[in-house]
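Quick start: what a row looks like.
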Amino acid sequence: MSRPVVVIVGAGPGVSGSVARKFADEGYDVALMGQDQGVLDDLAADVEGRGAACGHTVVDVTDEPAARAAVRRFGEHAGRIDVLHFNPSAFREKDPLQLSVDELLEDVRLGVGALLTVVQAARPFMSAGGRVSVTGSMAADEPWEGAASLGVQKAGVRNLVHSLDKTLSPDGIRAVSVTVRGALAKDGAFTPDGVAEALWAAVATDEGDWRSEVPYAG
């Protein structure tokens, strides 16, 4: 039997990198979608050093045809997608009086809309027991007005996860948003590795205890 496969959308050196390493350590092969080839190369080497196979591709996930094609290639190559992890969001330092409608929609297209794209592309390769996970944020409930679009993205993506979970659950596939209730830091409770552990715990939750939102307070 082939190893389980996690596809990480928005792969980079922070939380998503920690997620990649955590899943590799748990016996998963890893597929990475990101925007920086050098970052992906370094992360892939780290993952492969842990004994996992790792494919990676540079893609703009707001380019719907390109993002769908990338997910489909990973699914066809592995024959399965067991976990789809979604990490992207846009940080634009503008308050509501500075932020234009076009800028808001551009950010929502990345932080919310791209989740639809990748889930729809991954669904044919997912079966009962499959999971969709999203890096959430307390900005959904306590937005900083200085980056107004981020709170809208995080509230929107959490809402979408609830809908995805209800839609996918009859087929045994579940979705979860892990709401990080603190600021990421190199030390302390909110390190990327700590958040990755929380995401792993959420994905590994038994069906009977499943919740589509899990808070992580460190």
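That is the whole record. The CA atoms of residues 165 and 175 lie 5 Å apart. The mean pLDDT is 96.
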